[in-house]
């Protein structure tokens, strides 16, 4: 368990559209670009082994610095907890979500990857125990999810969803469902687990209305 004192002021960041990391969830990544291979190697040398996942903004070419898109204001850092290397030099890693952060400024330096000075204090709750959602109606939620998955021809292990802890269920679906990058950012910035669950429900209901289904989750 990491504490606020363990969190560094500056972290490497990995801008990846549509990739969402949340506290206490795990994100597998396939790393092959040279600059991010270097980032992983440098990360493994640190005590905290943190990498900040963050989404790039839609940025007109005229406003980009060195061709790079601007970053969202809020991301989430994960600790590198799994690592393997393929025969052709690619890395397969797993990040375990620790805490969200707010970008204070991007650090200019000599690394091939991007780094940011960050503020952890708005998200002190992320370092606490698992969140609960007292009003969560699992059966109704899973019924709605089943219609959504059927519409998209997706499959899942329904027994695992029925038994999963509420936070793990909501956060895993936030990360895995094919929502837009903007919607994923909204899920990241949700202040509580309850708000995140309500956001998922709204997104699913909107998708189902687009397919002609009108029933909503009360």
From TrEMBL:
SUPFAM superfamilies: PUA domain-like. Residues 11-208 form the Lon N-terminal domain. One of its GO terms (molecular function) is peptidase activity. It comes from the Bacteria. It holds the Pfam family LON_substr_bdg. GO terms for biological process: proteolysis. This is ATP-dependent protease.
């Amino acid at each position: 368990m990491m504490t606020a004192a363990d969190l560094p002021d500056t972290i490497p960041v990995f801008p990846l559209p549509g990739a969402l990391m949340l506290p206490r969830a795990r994100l597998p990544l396939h790393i092959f670009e040279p600059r991010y291979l270097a980032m992983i190697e440098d990360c493994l040398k640190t005590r905290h082994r943190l990498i900040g996942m963050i989404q790039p903004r839609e940025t007109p070419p005229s406003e980009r610095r060195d061709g790079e898109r601007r970053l969202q204001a809020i991301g989430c850092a994960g600790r590198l907890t799994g690592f393997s290397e393929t025969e052709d030099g690619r890395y397969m890693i797993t990040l375990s979500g620790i805490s969200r952060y707010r970008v204070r400024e991007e650090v200019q330096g000599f690394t091939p990857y991007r780094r940011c000075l960050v503020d952890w204090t708005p998200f002190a709750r992320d370092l606490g125990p698992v969140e609960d959602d007292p009003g969560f109606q699992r059966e109704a939620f899973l019924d709605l999810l089943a219609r959504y998955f059927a519409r998209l021809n997706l499959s899942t292990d329904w027994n695992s969803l029925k038994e999963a802890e509420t936070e793990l269920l909501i956060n895993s679906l936030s990360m895995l469902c094919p929502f837009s990058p903007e919607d994923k950012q909204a899920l990241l910035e949700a202040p509580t687990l309850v708000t995140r669950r309500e956001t998922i429900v709204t997104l699913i209901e909107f998708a189902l209305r687009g397919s002609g289904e009108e029933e909503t989750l009360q």
